[in-house]
Amino acid sequence: MFRTNTCGELKITDVNKTVTLAGWVQTVRKFGSITFVDLRDRYGITQLLLNETLNAQLETNPLGREFVLQASGKVTERSSKNVNIATGEIEIAVERFTILNKSITPPFTIQDDTDGGDELRMKYRFLDLRRNAVKKNLELRYAVGRSTRNYLHENNFMDIETPFLIKSTPEGARDFVVPSRMNAGQFYALPQSPQTFKQLLMVSGYDRYYQIVKCFRDEDLRADRQPEFTQIDCEMCFVEQEDILQMFEGLVRRIFKDVKNIDYTEVIERMTWEEAMWQYGNDKPDIRFGIKLNNLKFPSHTFADKENISSIITSDFAVFNEAETVLAICVPNCSDYTRKQTDELVEWVKRPQIGMKGLAFIKYNTDGTFKSSIDKFFTNDQLKNIAAACHAVAGDLILILAGAEEKTRKAASDLRMYMGTTLGLRKADDFKLLWVLDFPLFEYDEDGNRWVARHHPFTSPKPVDINTMINNNPAIENAAEYLKHPYANIKANAYDMVLNGNEIGGGSIRIFQRELQEKMFAALGMDAEEQQHKFGFLLGAFEYGAPPHGGIAFGFDRLCSILGGSESIRDFIAFPKNNSGRDVMIDAPSTIDEKQFEELQIRLDVK
RNA sequence: GGAGUGGUAGUUCAGUUGGUUAGAAUGCUGCCCUGUCACGGCAGAGGUCGCGGGUUCGAGUCCCGUCCACUCCGCCA
Asked: Which of A74, A92, A182, A227 is deepest in the core (most CB within 10 A)?
């Protein structure tokens, strides 16, 4: 037996027990003839005391950081205690120890506040994983997984594995492809999600399916996007949208309780996509704070009060007059911003990532007066009316952006988020869930002058829109006026769950009739032959009694990182890839042997 | 595909207007130290300033190119 106890469990009540511990040397503190060693394992740190006799042994075999050590001795009460660690009241009076293995000096310190940079930590990830800071993220991930499995199991969901070597369908994200040796010239694709398989499982009658499963997308990466990532993938049959929303509100509440000990009992807010876009400029709004967008001009979409608001910004100010959209946000208690501060905001929106030409502001001073960067063009009464339209009160700072609709809306949303962060309104330990509903079924693809599925091609339209879809030609005659095409207004039975401004899950009620699915594929520009080639198996299955069904998938890594209070998902994945999709520890991807190419009958022609 | 920021000791960083021997902290090594727990004290070693080219009497510093990392836009049904 290597050890009788772990390094995290011995307490004052264990004094006088004879124990054996095994672990890694965290630090060595030498005081002449006695030496303290902090021994670390997964469970904690226990102090070892090496007396004069054993100290002599260290002369010939000195200990270094990260040596693997086995030590036996008696648990004793410390004469000076350390209240900062769980085992701080005791130490082990070591009687004998064995160096099980040596370590060369690690390239960075194995501490919570390590001196290692990201690149180095990733190269030596096996050392980085020894750090408490990363370990607790993986523990949180494990807890979220367990909570999920428990909840879904209790609700009759069945975990069924689906294949990783599947068929490439170049809709949506780019596929990772895998050559088939036994079928020369042919390729598998790694799944972007188990979408079609879980639908087939519904046809098979496994009415509640789930899987915590790896998915693969060959697209550019971000702090919160990895080429391989994990989803909580779920599907149910004989359900309507409301059933799914209820079931998975339950899941998220359970996770909050199990993992964070938070009773999320409040009603989970819901808003339509349309509302989200016009109130927050974004389909995944952070509703922990207000600062909603106010439309100061005729919006091109239907929206409340447009008649009343439109006259407010009438003046000689060409920027507003010529802009497609004018949006304002009202930032509370910031009317005292200095010239320097407002200038910084102007520069902020002019950055290439935002790309606005400028930013107008109105200070609604606490004494009720107005001071504005557009004083020249607007009377005091007009400023007052604009302020009223923005629901501003004295002390507020109104920020106004003008320009092309989509760009301005995105900029206003970014500015809102920036102000929210600046003002400390986005606290990591404050959680607010939201359902965004009624997404458009189609999105216009400018390059192809065609419709693409906003969610995916298996999403069903709202029942009231089915006839619109069936009875209209999907062809877009006038590209400039695509918004007037009947398809532009078709809404989907699709829903996203949003947590603190992050999309954590999304799903839909699916199409389950062959005819409607064919119509959907046709709307996306697929002729009958192509449909058969790509999705013949699904269309065929729909003819054998496919039940109504729908589902949802949660981004597991992202959910864990948000619960852990981090922007990046990388430290919630044991072995993540870097920005370029490389694993710098094992150095992948890499070239392969000539023999492998021969077996695959593939010749390289790198451009 | 595009934009921004960065690359200097093992590590994290500083380095002024282009000017003598490129610094700090930490880590590492050695010596001292019986109650530390971020131990302390003394001494020491440690540098292809990412790489290539250019300007200059002289480049860590300026210019061009390139590679790498991070963040963002595009992309991510």
From this structure: A92
For residues A561-590, average pLDDT: 93
Q: Which residue is nearest to nucleotide B40 (CA to C1')?
A: A31
Q: Is the peptide bond before A106 cis (omega within 30 degrees of 0)?
A: no
List the A64 CA – B41 C1' distance (angstroms). Answer: 21
Query: A249: Cβ–Cβ under 8 A, 6 or more apart, which residues?
Result: A268, A433
Query: From the C1' of B32, which residue's alpha carbon is nearest?
Result: A32
Task: Please name every residue paired with A358 in a beta bridge, in sequence order, or none if there are none.
Answer: none
Q: Is the CB of A33 under 7 A from strand B?
A: yes
- Among chain A residues 2-31, those with CB within 7 Å of any atom of strand B: 27, 29-31
Low-confidence winner among A71-80, A94-103, A372-381, A545-554 (lowest mean pLDDT): A372-381
Residues A477-524: tens digit of each pLDDT: 887 778 788 898 899 999 999 999 999 999 999 999 999 999 999 999
- Determine which of A6-20, A184-198, A404-418, A493-507 has the lowest per-residue pLDDT on average: A404-418
Domain boundaries, chain A: 12-101, 289-426, 440-491+513-546
Ramachandran category for residue A291: left, alpha or beta (phi over 0 → left; psi -120 to 50 → alpha):
left
The angle that helices A528-541 and A514-523 make with each other, rounded to 10 degrees, is 150
pLDDT of res. A169: 79
**Would you say the C-beta of A60 is within 7 Å of strand B?**
no
Which fold, A12-101? OB fold (Dihydrolipoamide Acetyltransferase, E2P) (2.40.50)
Q: Are strands A177-179 and A293-295 parallel, antiparallel or unpaired?
A: unpaired
Q: How many helices and strands in chain A, by DSSP H and E?
A: 17, 22
- A289-426 belongs to CATH 3.40.630.30: no
pLDDT in tens, A63-72: 999 999 999 9
**Closest protein residue to B35 using CA and C1' atoms?**
A80
Of A35-39, A252-256, A343-347, A551-555, minimum mean pLDDT range:
A343-347
ipTM score assigned to the predicted complex: 0.92
With a CB cutoff of 8 Å and minimum separation 6, the contacts of A513 are A542, A546
Decide if pLDDT at A300 tops 50: no
* Residue among A443, A415, A459, A428 nearest A552 (CA): A459
Q: Is the pLDDT confidence value at A596 over 70?
A: yes
Which nucleotide lies at the shortest CA–C1' distance from A221? B76
> In sequence order, which ranges of A88-177 are alpha helices (DSSP H)?
118-123, 125-128, 132-154
Taking the alpha carbons at both ends of chain A, their separation in whole angstroms is 58
Nucleotide in closest CA–C1' contact with A577:
B69
How many Å apart are A34 CA and B69 C1'?
Answer: 44
Q: Which of residues 145-184 of A touch strand B (CB under 7 A)?
A: 171-174
